[in-house]
Ser/Thr phosphatase family protein
Amino acid sequence: MKKHKKLKIAAGILCLLLIIAIPLCYYLIYISYNHLTVNTYDIKSQKIEATSGENLKFVVVGDLHDNTFNDNDDKLVQTIKAQNPDFIIADGDILNDDSKNPDIAMSFIKRLVKIAPVYYALGNHELEYMQNQKSEDLLDEIKSTGAILLEQKYKDIKVKGVPVRIGGMYGYAFDPNGTTKKADMGDGIYDFLKDFENTSSYKIMMSHRPDSFIFGEASKAWDIDLVVSSHDHGGQVVFPFLGGFYGGDQGYFPEYIHGLYNKDKMNILISSGLGSNKQKLPRFNNVPEVMVVNLSK
């Protein structure tokens, strides 16, 4: 076969592949911002013994990044409501650091509060938004929705007769050397964690970044039953057979990126989130997630 003919065949094959690949890529990006999936995780603990014999159920949402799903979040809110949760965790980055205002995020949280109690943890975008605005008014706006904002704070509640302690913390649960020496940890973090773990209740820590607990000796040092995180968007780009592409401090193809992990004596639950801010790469093959957690004995 002459070289010229081979080149024509090769060009034809390449064109065919492009014809297939371009709409496929568009579709995989589209569903990563506009579709929804519900993933359920069952976690057992001897501390969970509801008086009614039922499971405790809560929903985790995070990384909305002002995404409205082209319907003012109506389908998202109805999907959450259909789970009939005992409470809801909003795990940070509900808005963007460059949002003109927090209206989309606060409207969403107000609607969630009508479904169940909402516990809100700060993400990096809430913190950066306040820095950009040179104001901490956002904290009052979050509280005004009826959500319970927890940053280096916790709240003791009872759910179906089961005592639960829910806390929130953005900082790292270890010092720069990976240890947990009080003098080298961030302001107030050591004392907060020591106080937080001092209970027989089931302990849930909202920590926007999984990095806060997966590095160093944090997962060995702290007596926390469940850490709930988001932040990494499931890797942003999800490759078939390879998984999430990038995970913040963990770098490329991170180990802890999406799902339920048991690390040392700690369960770590990581959501892939509901949206994305402006990134070098868009969400790809990465359907936004509503996470449902069933706690039982």
User: Anything to note?
Assistant: Helices lie at 3-34, 74-82, 103-113, 124-133, 137-144, 189-197, 211-214, 218-221.
